């Protein structure tokens, strides 16, 4: 095999392949503790499900479906590897485990493997609407990489098995296996459950999906009222770089729009006006509260946002530098038998309290500085009073000696006179120094009194803005901050997708569940007519000895609450003997 590919060394060194792209630079990753408010917060309001109306010119640049950065990434072999979340120039640990002969082989063999792998990914991403089969791919692999067809088939099988190719909604060129390899029950018809069910169906498994609600989609939920529709759950695509949703959007013609970076915040001015509306038809009086609002000043908005990021930096320091991730019943840190993990919400509140304590400490330090300067000023003034008394006394003595009627003075009297004059000069010089010190102390004192520290860490309005950032963070993580682990809440930051955040032009639920993905699943997943409608097909055990009875109705299997106190062993036996009883 080495002999076949000796000629590749020069080609790889010069890198003249038109398919590959050199110098690919991905955007610099944001710090894990920084949370931007543009993507999760500026979700568009519900829009009518009718034809599009005119769009403002200022929104044109935000409505481009194609992200130039993503288009650049999708070009070339390196872009295909990046979009598939794989390193371009080395094997992953999974690949090394599945291809030990390649991982332990010579470097040139690994280069061949990587080229074939990246080329297959590139061909798939160029046309994800059609199944990628090895027979169609081999002619598209450049010589001499296509000489080892066995290796190409192995790589294709690996990529297909691990979901790097042939995933989502695409046209199959080969029929599904008629012989089922096994039976699988997928619990939950959310997007993950549906995607997993479809993928296992592609692998030749018989799949049944269980869903507790009367709809599919899970967190992808759509609200409908009259001609208006709105997503209530997942609705934001957090970047297309390395995101499999990029492929899915091409498969189902999903139109995406950038979310504007600008996100002004508004606050109430505290004035509420009451308006009485009389509905004559219903003879009912409704009181509507109209609260006047105003935009938060930009400087205050930016100040609170910087403080929010500083708080996250502080919690990150507590977790990763001080390893303060657990707290025991006594309130001290440390991981013991009674220790419980610290939540992000707890850590943020602790840091806020420390900041408030710091404000009080700064107030105390400020007052101490003022008192110290005032003490120095009093001492200085006392010295100035003492020098003034001394100056007056010396001046009196000097005048008396100079006004003496004696026309002649002996040498002793002349010495005393000149000594008094010297003392007067020294006292005046000391007075001037103390006077300058007094001015300096008064200037410092005025400066301190003119710029006292804040009485509070955050005002009530500032805390409202900060709470908005907290709520935005909860929205981004789909749970409250008290449920987020301080140590692990941002563990996925290293795997964030690149590019702008986008939202679906229509409704995500309509795209992913109702219109496209589900129609590909319903026939295959629920084609079996062995289970009559409204008949129990199993009992699924839950915690606290509460169980759910599973029943089938129409084209979907539902799970309804049914308090049956049985052991889990009975559930296993129940499935094995395939009992069917009517649900009362």
UniProtKB/TrEMBL annotation:
The keyword Phosphoprotein applies. Residues 1-68 are annotated as: Disordered. One of its GO terms (cellular component) is nucleus. Residues 16-40 have a biased composition (Basic and acidic residues). It is found in: Chromosome; Nucleus. Residues 56-65 have a biased composition (Acidic residues). Keywords: Chromosome, Coiled coil, FAD, Flavoprotein, Methyltransferase, Nucleus, Oxidoreductase, Phosphoprotein, Repressor, Transcription, Transcription regulation, Transferase. One of its GO terms (biological process) is methylation. Gene3D superfamilies: ATP synthase, gamma subunit, helix hairpin domain (1.10.287.80), FAD/NAD(P)-binding domain (3.50.50.60), Winged helix-like DNA-binding domain superfamily/Winged helix DNA-binding domain (1.10.10.10). GO terms for molecular function: chromatin binding; FAD-dependent H3K4me/H3K4me3 demethylase activity; flavin adenine dinucleotide binding; methyltransferase activity; RNA binding. Its cofactor is FAD. Its main location: nucleus. InterPro entries: Amino_oxidase (IPR002937), FAD/NAD-bd_sf (IPR036188), Flavin_monoamine_oxidase (IPR050281), Homeodomain-like_sf (IPR009057), SWIRM (IPR007526), WH-like_DNA-bd_sf (IPR036388). Residues 77-176 form the SWIRM domain. Belongs to the flavin monoamine oxidase family. This is Lysine-specific histone demethylase 1A. It comes from Cyphomyrmex costatus. The lineage of its organism: Eukaryota, Metazoa, Ecdysozoa, Arthropoda, Hexapoda.
């Amino acid at each position: 095999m080495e002999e076949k590919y000796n000629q590749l060394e020069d080609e790889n060194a010069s890198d003249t392949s038109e398919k590959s792209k050199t110098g690919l630079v991905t955007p610099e990753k944001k710090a894990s503790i920084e949370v931007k408010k543009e993507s999760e917060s500026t979700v568009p309001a519900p829009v009518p499900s009718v034809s599009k109306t005119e769009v403002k010119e200022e929104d044109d640049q935000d409505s481009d479906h194609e992200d130039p950065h993503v288009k650049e990434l999708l070009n070339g072999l390196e872009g295909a590897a990046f979009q598939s979340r794989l390193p371009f120039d080395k094997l992953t640990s999974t690949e090394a485990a599945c291809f030990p002969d390649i991982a332990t082989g010579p470097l040139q063999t690994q280069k061949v493997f990587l080229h074939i792998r990246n080329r297959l990914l590139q061909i798939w991403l160029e046309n994800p609407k059609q199944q990628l089969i090895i027979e169609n791919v081999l002619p598209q692999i450049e010589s001499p990489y296509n000489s080892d067809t066995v290796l190409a088939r192995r790589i294709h099988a690996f990529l297909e098995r691990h979901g790097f190719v042939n995933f989502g909604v695409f046209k199959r060129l080969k029929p599904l296996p008629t012989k089922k390899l096994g039976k699988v029950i997928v619990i939950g018809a959310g997007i993950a459950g549906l995607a997993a069910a479809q993928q296992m169906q592609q692998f030749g498994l018989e799949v049944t999906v269980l869903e507790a609600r009367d709809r599919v989609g899970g967190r992808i939920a759509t609200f409908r009222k009259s001609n208006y529709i709105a997503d209530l759950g997942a609705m934001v695509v957090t970047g297309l770089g390395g995101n499999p949703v990029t492929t899915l959007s091409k498969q189902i013609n999903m139109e995406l729009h950038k979310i504007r970076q600008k996100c002004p915040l508004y606050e109430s001015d505290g004035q509420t006006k009451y308006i009485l509306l009389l509905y004559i038809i219903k003879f009912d009086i409704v009181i509507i509260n109209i609260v006047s609002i105003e935009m938060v000043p930009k400087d205050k908005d930016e100040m609170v946002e910087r403080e929010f990021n500083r708080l996250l930096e502080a919690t990150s320091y507590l977790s990763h530098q001080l390893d303060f991730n657990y707290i025991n019943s006594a309130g001290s840190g440390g991981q013991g038998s009674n220790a419980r993990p610290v939540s992000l919400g707890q850590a943020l509140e602790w840091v806020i309290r420390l900041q408030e304590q710091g404000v009080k400490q700064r107030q105390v330090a400020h007052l101490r500085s003022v008192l110290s300067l005032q003490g120095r000023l009093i001492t200085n003034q006392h010295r100035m009073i003492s020098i003034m008394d001394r100056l007056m006394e010396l001046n009196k003595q000097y005048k008396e000696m100079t006004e003496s009627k004696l026309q002649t003075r002996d040498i002793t009297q002349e010495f005393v006179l000149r000594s008094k004059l010297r003392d007067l000069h020294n006292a005046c010089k000391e007075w001037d120094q103390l006077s300058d010190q007094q001015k300096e102390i008064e200037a410092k004192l005025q400066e301190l009194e003119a710029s006292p520290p804040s009485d509070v860490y955050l005002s009530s309005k500032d805390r409202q803005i900060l709470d908005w950032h907290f709520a935005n963070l909860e929205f981004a993580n789909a749970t409250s901050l008290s449920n987020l682990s301080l140590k692990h809440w941002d563990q996925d930051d290293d795997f964030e997708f690149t590019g702008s955040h986008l939202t679906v032009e229509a409704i995500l639920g309509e795209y992913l569940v109702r219109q496209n993905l589900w129609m590909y699943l319903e026939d295959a997943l629920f084609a079996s007519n062995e289970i009559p409608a409204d008949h129990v097909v199993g009992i699924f055990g839950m915690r606290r000895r509460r169980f759910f009875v599973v029943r089938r109705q129409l084209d979907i299997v539902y799970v309804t609450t049914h308090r049956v106190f049985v052991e889990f062993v009975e559930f296993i036996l129940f499935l094995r003997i395939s009992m069917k009883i009517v649900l009362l």
